[in-house]
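Annotated sample (chain length 303).
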Amino acid sequence: MSLTAIILILISAIMHAGWNLLSKSKLPTAAFFLISSFTGALLLSPFLIININIVTNHFSLNIWMLLLSTGFFMSLYYVSLAGAYRSGELSIVYPLARSSPAIVVSIVTLFFSQGNQISILCIIGILFIVMGCFLIPVNKFSEIKIKNYLNLTCGLALLAAMGTAGYSIIDDEALRQLRNNTNISINNIQIAIIYACLQAWIAFIWLLFFVSFRRQGRLSFAKTFNEHLRYAMFAGVAIHITYLLVLISFEYAKNVSYVVGFRQLSIPLGVLCGIVLLKEPSHKLKLIGVGIVFIGLILVALG
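Output written by the structure step:
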């Protein structure tokens, strides 16, 4: 993985841990992320408007289907993450939601015959990341049993992870197709910005359906709008700048698995935010788990 990709993902990881801390400490609901998605979409829209001819002339039906799909997976991620944060700790939910996509993306990549792009070192690093993150929620080794992960918090965190894996794989494929389209005259960074804007709008539409068709969702939206609007908007700016950096980094990495793996640098940052800023309990296995994750990250970067 190139130095450029590492720097982009490093900045992204810091911002990612930050907006997760903000959403956990305020009102983690689908309505919160609805406002965040709308804010991010508006933020990127001027660039989309300037280049609207690129979208109308060169975005195929296949690209639009991929955008529709990635918007769904991103909204699934938001809804699941919000539910997990309402029921559990940041220092538990965050690493579970962030670690699982790495292994999911690697498996899918192998099935799509891109396995030759993934080094053994990278695979070992990803396994370290997953192993470390599953140590974080338990207090002692004897608690590492399947039944101790069968709860609402872990279930929603893993569902959020499925959302992350889904949109990461789809985005990599969509951007690959757009970059390979010789009829598109703008550079790859500009393509990524246009794509991120459309993705934000489509995720917003999916979330709008989820929030507006539920009475609890409408009440939650009113509460968020009245009491936490600025926080939701700030999170929206951070979310979309963060993921835009990730989309750009795809261009500088040999395989999406490298990006998804190294993005997990935000895991130790998120755990520390939960322990230090939110005063969540810490224990030896949680810290050991973070250490194992860090080793895995180094292996992914070296791969």
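Annotation: The two ends are 7 Å apart (CA to CA).
Annotation: Residues 152-179 form the longest helix (28 residues).
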